[in-house]
Structure prediction request, 344 residues.
Amino acid sequence: MTFRILLAGLGNRGKQWAGIVGAAPGIELAAAVDPSPDARAIFAERFPGVPIHEDLGRALSDVACDAVLLVTPPDGHLAQARAVFAAGKPLLCEKPVATGLDEALRIVEMSEQARLPLSIGLNFRYLPVSMALRDLVATKTYGEPGFGNFVYQRNRDGMRPGLNKYPLTMRHPMMLEQSIHHLDLIRFCYGREATHVACRTWNPGWSMYAHDANVSCLLTLDGGMEVVYLGTWTGGWNELRFEWRTDCAGGAIVQRELFSDLAAARTGDTALTTIDLPEARAFIDDSAALLDAFVAAVRGGGAPPCGGRDHLRSLALCFAAIESAETGQRVDIRAFEARHGLAP
Ligand SMILES: NC(=O)c1ccc[n+]([C@@H]2O[C@H](COP(=O)([O-])OP(=O)(O)OC[C@H]3O[C@@H](n4cnc5c(N)ncnc54)[C@H](O)[C@@H]3O)[C@@H](O)[C@H]2O)c1
Prediction:
């Protein structure tokens, strides 16, 4: 039987999701909802035939669906998730699940109390490059991993037409919109939790963002692994630079492109050797894989992929890093999680 999705939020990412849902075998877009007349008009032109609503509450009572895909700005997620769970629907919610830890915990607790699956849009875990890196680390192909260096530098034009505008005015746009993905990938690919974080966040004078668009962290992971992280949306040069290098006892693994290109070398090698990866369209194929896993979990009753509790740990890392930046102190993650009622 076809799995029916109600899509809420028809902005940039919502339209991308509509294409992904439309192309997924056995899954269909039952209806779409957005309070913005402009967003509805643009969507109607691009996806004719999909019923469009303007109010989520009304859509939840009028549309027959098996789950909701929530692709709205994160500051509205709490009220929207409450309505979704009250309607008895499983939820696939875009990241970050909320812009505050209390709200994030509340959403996760609501899903648990209602016994309804909750998955978060950490689709980059499903990129072939992320899965291959995770595999190489887990199998210790180049020996025990000891430290990592993750660099993401770009100049993101937040004014660009078609791009979401709320990051221009929110607090910690880099940390909560972008670094959340990176810190989540560090946890996922290394298969370890962070034990401590020391962080600085800042905003250069030329930044178009109202709040900090730069993040620099030193993360200590279980087993003593150290990771240096630098992320910026306000680079002085408008060319993306990405590199994620993992140094191991017998070599190094290097991801050379944002969504692809993995290579490695043994300690004595003079050059990196490229590792073959399947082709994948970033944002599309990884999201389709996440959607598939979510639908399988809803149908089969298994643990939802990129589940809410797991996301709380990535979000806690972001907020512990923010606390570190504000206090100038290194933060103990387990103590931080306990203080916020998040202890596993
Ligand atoms: N996982 C990823 O790869 C990825 C990529 C891009 C964006 N995102 C996330 O997706 C979410 C949306 O981002 P975006 O770029 O599409 O933002 P956007 O601002 O372009 O679009 C958001 C849309 O949500 C609508 N909306 C607001 N309240 C609503 C409600 N109550 N019901 C229905 N619709 C409502 C707005 O009118 C707007 O059209 C964010 O959480 C963002 O972080 C994730």
Summary: Residues 8-14, 33-36, 39, 56, 71-74, 76, 80, 94-95, 121, 123, 164, 166, 177, 283 surround nicotinamide-adenine-dinucleotide (CB under 6 Å). The first strand starts at residue 3 and ends at 8.
